[in-house]
Amino acid sequence: SPQVGKDERVVYDPTIYVCDAKPWCLTDCDVRCAGSPAVIVSREGELTMERCSLGGSDRRTYDMSIDPKRCASNALEAYGTSWVYMRRCLVEDTIGPGVAFTDESHGLVSLCLFTRCAIGMSFDHNCEVTVRGCSIAD
């Protein structure tokens, strides 16, 4: 990351970035980010996440204003022709979609819980995603 001042934040600086790498697997991990996506998978990258939690670095509540410096912009973004497999994950505390699939990305999202996300999931362009047994709540 570029050098920034003490009170500044780099925009679009994910915690995990998988680009053309495959196969990556995260199991029982807690992946957090403030103000940016927690995970980005792009090009031909492939990522499997099982029993992980991902999202912002601080809980979003209704009795306080949303602080974009503490919530993730998105928990996960998939681009290009990437593949994402998510199973039994917790996605929370985002100011945008919990997961966002775009371009010709592919995914399987199974038995996941989405909570305190501005939008649970977004699907754009020619992505192909299967969603099974998930719970989406605000």
Summarize this, please?
With 138 residues, the protein is an all-beta fold.
Structural features:
mainly beta, five-stranded parallel sheet, 138 residues, single chain, disordered N terminus, eight-stranded parallel sheet
Q: On the 0-100 scale, what is the average pLDDT?
A: 87
- The unreliable regions are 1-5
| Largest β sheet strand count, sense and barrel closure | 8 strands, parallel
Compressed to H and E, one letter per element, the order equals: EEEEEEEEEEEEE
Number of strands: 13
Strand content: over 45%
Oligomer: single chain
Percentage of residues in helical conformation: under 10%
Distance between the termini: 32 Å
Whole-number radius of gyration?
14 Å
Number of helices: 0
Per the principal axes of the C-alpha atoms, what is the gross shape? Answer: globular
Q: What is the SS-derived class?
A: mainly beta
